[in-house]
Amino acid sequence: MPKLSSRGKTLRPEDFKYYLNDIVNLGCYKAINRAGSTEDEVDAFYTGFLADVFLKKNGWVIHAQTRAGRTLVKVDVRVRWVSLQGAQTAVILWENKRRELESDSSVWAEALEQVVEYADAVRCNGPEQDASKPLYLTVNVGTYLRFYELPGLSNVAKDWAPAKGKLYELADDEEAVWKLWNRLREVDETTSAVRLVESHISKMKDGWLNKLDADSVATRKETP
């Protein structure tokens, strides 16, 4: 049976049961799937997707800002997080929009390295942070994603056990992706916190990230 993702523009909401059953989310998915898609298409998709997972009526608030204790090189990098009762960061979402890089293992390795570096910076900023708590990471390239966990007091990521180290495609694996994101939300409801950081990168280049800026360095020094 052909994969749903191969049908591209012919996909319909009735082909799906979860987030792509929504005509707006599906339209954003199709836009990401097109050659030359940008960070704007992916940001639009996750705006709707996160609102479906983290419901406002249950106390979740989705925020956006330009950085989280880190100065990023590219202007197309964005930060997004979801809070419940203002507790600490729990999930970091790292994205690269270029579908032509989906099969390049070095791209996945570099993205994971950089999201771990970002997570380490997040842990060093903000009085609400507890470095002994795990962070949950996703690496996203094109329409594929993989889930990771960064254990407390560690800078070495490992596959998040429930996801079994697999790559998931937003359309082909819609049910699994939906259930895994809801499981992440449940983890964060237990700890009363989640922050999702979306970094939208349209080009793969050396120097995606600067070192911690002066404010971050000062914060790191002041942290006991």
Q: What can you see in these coordinates?
A:
- The chain is α/β, with parallel strands linked by helices.
- It has one domain (4-222).
- Helices cover 32% and strands 17% of the residues.
- It has five helices and eight strands; from the N terminus they run ααβββαββββαβα.
- The strands form two sheets. Strands 3, 4, 5, 6, 7 and 8 form a six-stranded mixed beta sheet that branches. The chain has a two-stranded antiparallel sheet with strand order 1-2.
- A hairpin with a 2-residue loop joins strand 4 (135-141) and strand 5 (144-150).
- Helix 1 runs antiparallel to helix 2 (39-53).
- The chain is globular, with a radius of gyration of 17 Å.
- The protein starts with 22 loop residues before the first helix and ends with a helix.
- Residues 66-77 and 192-221 have low confidence and may be disordered.
Compact description:
The chain has helices at 23-33, 39-53, 105-123, 174-191, 214-222, and strands at residues 61-65, 79-83, 91-96, 135-141, 144-150, 158-159, 168-169, 198-201. It is of the alpha/beta class.
Describe the protein's topology.
Layout (H helix, E strand, L loop, with lengths): L22 H11 L5 H15 L7 E5 L13 E5 L7 E6 L8 H19 L11 E7 L2 E7 L7 E2 L8 E2 L4 H18 L6 E4 L12 H9 L2
Parallel strand pairs: 3-4, 3-8
Antiparallel strand pairs: 1-2, 4-5, 5-6, 5-7
Helix pairs in contact: 1-2
